[in-house]
Each structure stands twice: as C-alpha cells, then as structure tokens.
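Please decode residue identities from the backbone states below.
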C-alpha cells in the first residue's frame, strides 16, 4: 500500500498522518506537549521534543500498518521559531517561539533605529515585531553570549526534522522571509549585508520551496524512525502555510483562516513583475509557499489557548461551555472581552496588550464568558480582515481549517461578526495532511500529480446571518474603543508584571 507520511510540529502537539494516493487518510496519531514560559513574555520549547515525537509517530503508524509503503515524507511546524545549534547540530539553548514570545522588544527597537523602517520594509517586507526572527537572534547574541559563541546553524521545526532525516541544511523561502530583516522579499534570497550584521557566526541555509525535495532519509534516520533509507523528504514550511495547502486555500485571492491554539490568517496574491508585494505596517508580508506567490499574513496570539484557559478555569467540558455560550446569545449579555491574554500580534502589534473583560456583573455566568471569548476572537479576525483590505487585499474566498472548525458555533460567530462566508473542507486535520499532500506531489510522475480539490473537497459553507450585522457592527466599534480606552492602564500593568518576574537567564541561574 503506497502512501505518504505527513508530520507537523505544533505549539501544543505533534500530529502525524498516513495518506493514500487518492487522499484517503489511512491513520493518524498525535503527541501532546507543552511550551515553557520561564519568564513573562518568554515562550520556548526544547527541540528534542520535535525529533523524539516525530520518531514515536512514525514508528507507531508504520507498526500499525506494516503493509504501508511510504514513498515520501512531508514535514511542517510552527513558526517562525528560532533554534540555534552548534557545528555538531546540538542546540545551544531552547527554541524561541514565534510572535507569542515577546522578549526581543529592545532588539526590535534598536535594529529599527539602526536600519530605519523604510529600509527594513523595502528589504524584508514588514516592520519588525515580535513575529520577526532577526531580533530574536540578536537577543541571544546580546543576552546569552556563551550560547551565541557556539551557534553555527539556524533551524525551525520543519528544517530541523529535515536535517535529522536527511542531513540537508535547507530553509524554505516562506520560513526564511519571516527571519526578518535577514531575507530580501523581492529578490528571494538571504540579504547579505543584514545577515553579516546580525547573524555573523551563522552559516546561511540553502533556500528551496516548500514542496521541493530536500534530500532522502539516511541510514541512521531509517534505523530511528522505521522509514526506509532513500525515501524522499520535502523541504516543508511553517504550519499555517501547510494548513492553507491542506484545504486548497493557497491560490490568488484566497484567505486561509486557521483555528488553533492561536488564530492565523494567510492571504495569497500573485507576484506581478515591477510591482512590490502588498505591505502594511500592522501585518506581515512574506514569501509564499510556492514560486510566484506572496502573502499578507496576520495572527491572534490567542484563540484556542483562550478557550482552553476558560475550560480549565471553570472545570466544564467543551460541549457544556458551547451549549451555554449558545444560550447566552449575541453580545454575551453585555460582556465584551479583549482576547489579548498573551499580548497581541496583528493588527495592533502590541506585546504589552493584555486581556480585558468589560461589563461583568454578579448575574453573568461561565457561558457568558465563553461566548464573550468566542466573540472576542471573531472580532479580532474582523480587525485583521479590514486591515488587509485597506492594504489592497482583494479577498474573494475564505477557507477555514484547524481544530476549532469542529465547533460550528465558533465558525458561525466568526461569519456573523465578519459578514463573510467560510468554506469548510471535508478534512480539517490540518498541516500534517498538507505536508503529506506536498510530499505526494513531489514524487508524482509528470502529469500525475494529485489535486487538493480531489483530495479534500469543500463540504460545507458557513453563511453569515444578515440580521445580526448591526449588532456586531456596534460590538466591533466597542471592541476597538475598549482597547484604545484601556491601553494606558494595561501597559502599566504589563510593565509591573515584567518587573515582578525574574529575568535571570539559564546561564545566570
């Protein structure tokens, strides 16, 4: 039985899937893990988790299906993450995660002052924020000099798995474009002057596209994983982009909306000769997953993380909370929430933002709070969509993906708040499925590559309720004003939170 193996390393779990040539899912499995938050604003992960869980998943799936013939391997992972390793591929410290890790604020400010906003956006496409990889590299150099002295290579989860599987040291263009300002978005290559200034000791990875074959499984990796030596492995990319591939939301004018631990949005546009990529200071301009494409992307720092927090806080299960949230009704009986419980990424780009719950009374219930949390994430999505459109994004089609799509109430609220139809595909397993698809395409004979529309057709459309438009327009106005009205006090509280937490580094303690 020929098949492809797709594995994705996410924020809270690693997922694997075996997929038949026609897109049928043969088997899936997952391993849950946690991030480390050693200080306020820090979010890290031990890279050994990525490889260990890949090995466990591969062995479990292959043992359960001994007749499976894996013809190619697809990988993806959360990002942009910054993992630095020495010349022997030993990590010099835990990986620093994407925009939810806000430690590099001083480096962002300094590099922006040194290079200038215009030059940074001209080269990298986006202003520097907590999402950018370059300032986090600079943070390690400045704050952990012993670790920096040993650093020679740069990885993210997908490139780390490729390295362990094949020995190839390669980055995909999409991931590279998020190591801003070290990548030139227009010429699609590392920017040597900035690299030489901020990543001096790091060897530049070779660049490829997400679906390109990076190499083949080595004998050593075959012994560890059970995957036959010589099996092709694709370069892979960041999970949100692989999720977009998994549901066919990677064509021009598509917007992928990923419901996960965080909420992520990716709009795709075509490269037009002589015209620069779409740019706006409050979003991220990146290379696409495929040649000839660019993306305008955004993300909420919390979505599933917020609903999970409420679940743990209240002791109720998700079916209970969803039923109570549905009964609460539009506007959560006068409760309005800002979902900035881990700071916020786009479009406000404010790592010192914090969660706010306004309008609470003694009569309110956990169902009202849960409804307010669902509406808060939907309002955050609307804020991003409106910002993208103001930048020139011609959004014609929205496809929803991720674990949150299993709850139709959340999907309906997002459509009602944004006024947008969401298409839901048959399979919403996510990035691991997209990685398996890219692997299948990579090894297909000429003219025989599968189509994602055949693998994963659209089976449902969530249509907004026009009668709720006025109510949610009012709520969105209040949402924006609530942030503006509370920002000053919240920033003082954030500074106090930082001041009361230890800032000793692992090298100092």
């Amino acid at each position: 039985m020929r098949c492809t193996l797709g594995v994705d390393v996410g924020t809270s779990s690693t997922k694997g899937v075996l997929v038949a040539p026609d897109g049928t899912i043969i088997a899936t499995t997952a391993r849950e893990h946690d991030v480390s938050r050693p200080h306020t604003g820090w979010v890290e992960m031990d890279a050994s988790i990525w490889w260990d869980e890949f090995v466990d998943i591969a062995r479990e799936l292959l043992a359960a299906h001994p007749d499976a013939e894996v013809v190619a391997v697809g990988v993806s992972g959360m990002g942009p993450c910054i993992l630095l390793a020495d010349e022997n591929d030993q990590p010099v410290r835990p990986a620093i995660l994407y925009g939810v890790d806000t430690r590099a604020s001083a480096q962002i400010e300094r590099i922006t002052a040194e290079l200038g906003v215009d030059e940074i956006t001209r080269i990298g496409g986006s202003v520097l924020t907590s999402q950018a990889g370059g300032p986090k590299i600079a943070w390690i150099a400045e704050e952990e000099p012993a670790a920096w002295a040993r650093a020679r290579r740069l990885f993210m989860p997908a490139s780390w798995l490729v390295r362990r599987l094949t020995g190839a040291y390669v980055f995909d263009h999409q991931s590279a474009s998020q190591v801003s300002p070290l990548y030139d978005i227009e010429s699609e290559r590392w920017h040597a002057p900035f690299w030489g200034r901020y990543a001096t000791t790091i060897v530049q990875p070779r660049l490829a596209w997400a679906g390109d074959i990076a190499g083949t499984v080595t004998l050593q990796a075959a012994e560890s994983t059970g995957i036959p030596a010589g099996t092709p492995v694709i370069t892979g990319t960041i999970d949100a982009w692989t999720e977009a591939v998994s549901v066919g939301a990677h064509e021009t004018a598509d917007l992928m909306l990923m419901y996960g631990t965080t909420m992520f949005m990716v709009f795709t546009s075509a490269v037009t000769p002589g015209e620069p990529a779409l740019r706006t200071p409050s979003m991220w301009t990146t290379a696409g997953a495929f040649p000839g494409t660019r993306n305008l992307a955004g993300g909420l720092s919390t979505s599933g993380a917020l609903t999970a927090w409420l679940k743990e806080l209240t002791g109720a299960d998700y079916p209970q909370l969803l039923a109570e949230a549905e009964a609460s009704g539009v506007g959560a009986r006068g409760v309005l929430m800002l979902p900035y419980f881990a700071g916020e990424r786009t479009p406000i780009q404010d790592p010192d933002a914090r969660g706010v719950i306004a309008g609470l009374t003694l009569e309110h219930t956990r169902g009202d709070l849960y409804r307010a949390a669902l509406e808060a994430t939907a309002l955050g999505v609307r804020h991003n969509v409106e910002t993208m459109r103001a930048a020139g994004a011609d959004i014609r089609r929205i496809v929803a993906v991720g674990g949150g799509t299993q709850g139709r109430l959340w999907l309906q609220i997002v459509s009602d708040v944004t006024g947008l139809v969401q298409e839901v595909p048959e399979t919403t397993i996510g990035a691991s499925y997209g990685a398996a698809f890219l692997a299948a395409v990579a090894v297909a004979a000429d003219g025989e590559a599968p189509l994602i529309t055949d693998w994963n057709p659209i089976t449902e459309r969530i249509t907004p309720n026009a009668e709720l438009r006025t109510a949610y327009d009012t709520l969105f106005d209040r949402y924006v004003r609530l942030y503006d009205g509370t920002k000053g006090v919240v920033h003082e509280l954030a500074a106090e939170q930082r001041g009361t937490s230890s800032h000793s580094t692992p090298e100092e303690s």
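Observation: Residues 502-509 have pLDDT under 50 and may be disordered.
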